[in-house]
Amino acid sequence: MSSRDNILAAIGKTKRNDREPSPLPQIPTSDTFNDRLIERFSETLTGVGGQVVRVTDWLDIIQHIEQTYRQVSISPAHRIVTTLPELSAVAEVGWSGLSPHLLADADLAIIGAHFGVAENGAVWLTESLLGHRAAPFICQHLAVVLNASNIVPTMHDAYERIGDAEYGFGLFMAGPSKSADIEQSLVMGAHGPKTMTLFLMV
């Protein structure tokens, strides 16, 4: 028997001796976290480096920004931009569609999110909310406003909600930028915002 025949015979034998198929993993159901959606979402996002601040209205957000970001020496300009007109008292509006180079000195960007996912602490963002695709990546610090009623349990629910929606750009984002590529040492803000604060409206 030639080497070729030996190889083919071995392959055939391997196929004949395949193990019994394993059962598929248990997929979480939509009611997996329903009794504690907010808590699970907050715990998961905090666990990946984000910060959750519960608020009741826009005034709470404005006060938090004034007390937190205005007092911290982020940069001499303390430039804050937002796509949310409700926050125009503390941030620039009307920059959407401009060159991303004009956002190079943005210390804090505040945007809205379509919904959040309790399973992994991610928020779903599309270009209609970003102002510019580069906005959540080019800023030093990122803040996202999310209504607590817009939290789904799992990624399966998230994809069902997205469905056939049309958008040019979209992403799930969970926490600040981070990397552990070098010596498995975790670095925050490696390729994008150093912090991510989520204002959860309850």
UniProtKB/TrEMBL annotation:
Q: Which parts of this chain are annotated as the region Disordered?
A: 11-30
Q: Where is the LUD domain?
A: 103-200
> What name has this protein been given in UniProt?
L-lactate dehydrogenase complex protein LldG
- Gene3D superfamilies for the chain: NagB/RpiA/CoA transferase-like (3.40.50.10420)
